[in-house]
Amino acid sequence: MPLATRISNNLIIDSNLIETSVSEEDENVENGDISNEAPSPTSDSIPPTPTTPSPRQARVARLFHERRRLVGRTVSEGQLLTKPVANGNDLGKSREAEDTPDFYEHRAKDLLPYKGGEGLTHKFLEEILKILLDYVNENFDRSVKVIDFHHPHDLKEKLHLELRDKPENLDQILDDCRKTLQYCVRTGHPRFFNQLSTGLDIVSLAGHWVSTTANTNMFTYEIAPVFTLIEKATLKKMRELIGFTDGDGIFSPGGAISNLYAVLLARHKKFPSCKRRGLNNLPTLVMFTSEHSHFSLKRAAAISGIGTDNVMYINTDERGKICVEDLENKIQQTIARGDEPFLVSATAGTTVVGAFDPINEIADICKKYKLWFHVDAAWGGSVLLSRKYKHLVDGLHRADSVTWNPHKMMGVTLQCSAILLREDGLLEDCNSMRATYLFQQDKHYDVCFDTGDKAIQCGRSTDVFRFWLTWRAKGTKGFESQVNKLFDLAHYLVDRLRAKDGFQLVFEKPECTNVCFWYYPPSLRELEDCQEKQLRLHKIAPLIKGRMMNDGKLMVGYQPLNDKVNFFRWVVSNPAATKADVDFMLDEIERLGHDL
User: Fold this and answer.
1) Are 357 and 290 in contact (CB under 8 A)?
2) How far apart are CA 540 and CA 532, in angstroms?
3) 559-589: pLDDT as tens digits
4) Which of 307, 393, 512, 529 is the most exposed place for a label (fewest CB within 10 A)?
5) Three-state secondary structure of 44-60
C-alpha cells in the first residue's frame, strides 16, 4: 500500500513532509487529507466497495511518488510517522513540540529581516544551537568516532549538493547543517592527532560566534572600533613576548599569508622602488630557508615574482636544524655569481619534525650580510608563553619579522595568525594604496587607527577577537600550563615508544610536540636492514592509515622525509588529550597493522 494512502495503528502521515520546494499550488494541495482508504472490515461486515480517489487525492498521491527522492533526502521514515502523544511526562514534550514551528512550512523569506520574522528567527537559531551543542559534546566523547569516512563519490550522494532554482524549506536547511557536521572530521576529538591545529576551545568558539554575529570588516576604525582596539592591544602583547620594544603587526588568514607578508616586506626594504616599477632592472633576488621549512615560503617566492628557482634550501643536521655553515656558504656563492641575497627564513618548530633552528647564529649571519631575518614560528612561537620551554626560541627578538599562529599550540579556533615586525611603519609603506573611498585623511577621528591600508587584503575577518577572548579567559599562566601539558604528553609518548616492541623513533630527541616513529609489523622485525625491508616498510604507514580512517576511531598523519621512508607523525595541540589517548593510539596502530 502506498505511503501516501496509508493510515493504520493510529499512525498518520502529514503530507506537508513530502516536498521541500514546490509551487504554492502544490503546497495548498498537500495540506489536505491524503487518505483514500476505507476502514478495515470486521469479520461480520460486508466487504467494502472499492473507492475511486478524488482528483485531489490522486494529485497528492502522484506528488508523493514523483518526489519520493526528496523524502529520502529530507526526512527519515520515522519522521514521516507521527505517533499520538501519551499521558504523563510526554505531555510536557507535547507542549514543547507545539511551541516548535513546523520548519517544513517555512523558508528563509519567513526569517528576519522580513516582517513578523522575529519569533521564527529565534526558534530557527535555537534549533541551530541544539545542533551545534550536540556536535560540541560529540567532540569530547571518546565513544564517538573521529571520522565517519566515505569516499568522495559516496559522500557526494549522501549530501545532495545540488543548488536548485526554488528555495528549500528551513527543515532541509537544518538537515543540511546536521549532515555537514555528521560527516566532518572531529578535529576537537582527543584522538585526532593528524594536524598541528587540533582541539576545540569553548571560549574561542564562543568568540567566533560573537564576532561572526557582528559580521564586520577590519579595514577601518569607522566600522570596527572595538575589534581595531582589540587587535592593537593583542599585537602589542605578542610583540612584548617576542622582545620587540616597538614595531608593528597585523592578523592574517593563516601562516602562509603571514610568511608572504615577510617576503614582500623584505623585498620592499631592500628595493622600495619595486612597489611602483616591479622587478625590472633589479638583480636576481635570492632567499634562503631550511630544507624542512614550510612550503609557503616557496609559494611566496612564486607570488612575489622572486621565482621558485631562487629559493635556496639549506641542509639540516640529524635533528632537522639548519646547518649554519651551509647557509653562509650558499650566501657567499650567491654573491659570487652576481645575484642579490635579501632574506633568510628560519623555522621555530618545523612542520614534520618540530625542529627549532639556531636563531642567534642565523641572526649573526643576517647581520653580517645585511639580510632580512624572518622566523616562521607559526607552530613553535607559543613556547614563548612557557618559562620552561621559551629557551627554544632564544634570540627571537633579533628577527625582523615573526609569524605566529595562535590557532595551533594555543588552541584558538581557525584561522588565527599574525605577522609581527620589529620596525614600525614598514607594513603601511609596503602595502598602502590610499584608496580615497576608505582611507580618507580628513575623518573626524585619528586615522592611524584605520589599519586596513597596511594589509594585503581589503576585506579582513575579525580573527583577533576569539584569540583575545581566549587569552582573557585563560590568562598567560593558563596558556603556560597548556603548553607544558602538551610537551609532557609528547615526552610520555617518546618513553612508551622506546619501551614498546615493533616501534622505532625517527628522531631520538624530539624538541617540540611532534613525535615521528615507524611501526614494524611482525613480518618485518626479523628481516635484515636492506633495501627490500625499507621498501616494504614504506608501504606500512599508508596501509594502516587507510584502515584507520575506515575504522574512524583515530587519526594520525604520515609522510616520508628526505631519504626516510614513510613514518607516522603524531602531533598534539589539544589539551583534552591524555596519556590514555596516547596508549590507545599505539594499541590501535598495532591492531590495525599486526597482520601486514
Assistant:
1) yes
2) 13
3) 999 999 999 999 999 999 999 999 999 999 9
4) 529
5) CCCCCCCCCCCHHHHHH
